[in-house]
Amino acid sequence: MPTVIFTSNLRRHVNCPTTQAEGETVAEALEKVFEKEPLLRGYVLDEQGALRKHMVIFLNGDALKDRIRLSDPVTRQDSEIFVMQALSGG
Predict the structure, then answer these.
(1) With pLDDT > 90 as the criterion, what percentage of the chain qualifies?
(2) Under 8 Å between Cβ of 24 and 55
(3) pLDDT value of residue 12
(4) What CATH number should be reported for the domain holding residue 69?
(5) Is the CA virtual torsion 27, 29, 35, 40 positive or negative?
(6) Strand-pair category, 80-85 with 3-6
(7) pLDDT (tens digit per residue) in 53-78
(8) What residues make up the domain containing 74?
(9) C-alpha–C-alpha distance, residues 78 and 43, integer Å
């Protein structure tokens, strides 16, 4: 079953432990997590359900391609979905 991992920085603001979540897409897997932790949705997604600009998701080490619908396919049972806040500035 795919593993969804959140950075410790995000865990400071909302309960989001590393968890296992079924889903054929990143959106489906995250929805399973949001069902258990509804406050997390607002930190990760905007009002239209797209990934917030200050967030980034990696699927098996590759940046998510579809930031709008999160439709990237989760094809392996040992997949890792890594959710973190994006850094900017300089």
Answers:
(1) 83
(2) no
(3) 86
(4) 3.10.20.30
(5) negative
(6) parallel
(7) 999 999 999 999 999 999 999 999 99
(8) 3-85
(9) 25
